[in-house]
Amino acid sequence: MNGIKRFDSTDDKVLSDRDIKRRWSQFHGSIRLVQGNLFQRVVGRMLGEDTIRYRVARLVGRPLLQLIRRLRRKPLVESTQRPTMKPAYFPHNYRPPTPATEPPALNSDLHDVDIVLLDEQTQTASSALKALNRVVNESVAQWLFISDTSIPEFDRIAAINALMSLASPSDDVLFADELGPDPLAPILKAPAVGRHTLLSFNCVGRPALIRISTLRKIGGFEAKSGWAFEHDAYLRLLEHGAQFHHVTGVFRAGRTPLAFEESHIGVDTVNIVRTALKRRGLKGSVSQGPFGSSVRWRIDTPRPHPSVDIIIPTRDRIDLVKQCIAAIEELTTYENFDIIILDNDSKEADTLEYFSTTKYRVVPCPGPFNYALIVNRGVHHSSADFVVTLNNDTILVTRDWLEQMLGLASLSDVSIVGASLLDQHGHHEHDSIVVAPYPQHLRTDSNYPRIDQFTAAVRDVAAVTGAVQMVRRELWESLGGMDEMLKVTMNDVDICFRSQADGRNVVYTPDVQLIHHVSSSRGTLDPLEDRNRFIRRWDIFGSFRDPYFPESLLLLGETMYYRHR
């Protein structure tokens, strides 16, 4: 389970209005502390004080902030690329740990750990696997710790001590953050190991302690896995219900740069993920990913091909509706789909004429704007196997978008599937929604100015935007649809959270892209009442932790900070 818990339907203490106001104040106070821009400090001071100030700040500040964001786009940095000018650390305030100068104090439980040293530069994968399996079969220790010979003993012991200090009887794998091949940007990891993320890349890595008895239960390391043997073991351990425990803190005893190179591990990684799909009874394809130790994987579209209804809400703005539908008709390669237009009191003559002549269904949705209610009505009028909620201000880019999203949405452990959105200027506007500590769009063009294994992966996420969501219609109905009390905002994030209560996952794919003319229809509507209801329900700014986003990252404004612990 990912640990997402609802609070307004339990006996837990419900947050008061004063509590919520205090949390907003603390959040915006944190932003003001780190923002050096005068305008941002002033707007930040206005936000969260009361409803009137909040609305004024959004009305005046949001367009200006969007302009500033476009003008200040940070250049994307490949995960292995080193800047040639001033070092650009990521996160913003991160600095690498200094090498140990003296041996750390030995942990009294160190005898419970069998340390296996490998030399990936000179050793063959087959000899390494034989040595490892010999230890798995013969060791009397509880834990296995794998390290390259190039890692100094001081660093190995420091990592083992930190991991052992937090080990519990229920843990099968303990793992921590690592330096990685880029000295300016560590590999920070999420508290939960996503089943779908782990297919895309080895998100566990090193340093790690693996319980030897659990390894024995899965038959040790697979002889055919090559240098991707750890990635393969983690996949099989996860499938067998092993418990993974992430320990925060960046340690120097991680993988060597060689472990990320395509020539060293690329073919082996593709093979072990292909085997994992077959082991799970899934038909699909696997190819080399954008990084040496990552892959692109796809699930074949189910047969017979399921029906899909694309649900597009609108109030007039027939110019947007026409370009949205035109792109769907021109580019979509999937055939078994239909479109339902949801009309929220359109009045313009051109709009009404289009509605009277279009071949697609038009469902009247009268009344004040309530996105959740409108979409729910559209799903109610659908009889398709799957539905896609789609904003009228989106333009399709990826031709086989429905095939890709259906492959993921058809998986029994997936609830909702989302995609990548670019703004009208071609910049990334949505690469999933992260909660760190408040739900915000992850943007690789601004607040996450990197292209790395994480951002380039098909991965498990806390939520995706309702601007494009695919979900099985029966599941939507079983959830009661979107919460119509969240009239304008947070209804999409809320249904993502609720959809994960039974163990399903929300999955984001960067391989499906659309252009999104941000808020062209909704405008500046963004009621604080919706946000406060959402905060109260999920204990945002309190106990809520995003299970699939690195817990050491803090997103304040447009900048990602390292959360020192």
What report would you give on this structure?
It is a single chain. This protein has 565 residues and is an alpha/beta fold. It has 2 domains: 110-298, Spore Coat Polysaccharide Biosynthesis Protein SpsA, Chain A (Alpha-Beta Complex); 301-562, Spore Coat Polysaccharide Biosynthesis Protein SpsA, Chain A (Alpha-Beta Complex), CATH 3.90.550.10. 32% of the residues lie in helices and 21% in strands. The chain contains 16 helices and 23 strands. It has helices at 17-34, 38-46, 51-71, 125-138, 153-164, 197-200, 212-217, 229-239, 262-279, 318-331, 349-357, 371-380, 401-409, 473-478, 491-498, 528-538; strands at 77-78, 113-118, 143-148, 173-178, 208-211, 244-251, 284-288, 295-299, 308-314, 337-343, 361-364, 386-390, 394-396, 414-422, 428-430, 433-435, 439-441, 450-451, 459-461, 468-472, 505-516, 553-556, 559-562. Strands 9, 10, 11, 12, 13, 14, 15, 19, 20 and 21 form a 10-stranded mixed β-sheet that branches. Strands 2-3-5-4-6 form a 5-stranded mixed β-sheet, with helices on both faces. Strand 2 (113-118), helix 4 (125-138) and strand 3 (143-148) form a beta-alpha-beta unit. Helix 1 (17-34) packs antiparallel against helix 2, helix 2 (38-46) runs antiparallel to helix 3 (51-71) and helix 8 packs parallel to helix 9 (262-279). It is globular. The model is unreliable at 45-51 and 81-85 (pLDDT under 50).
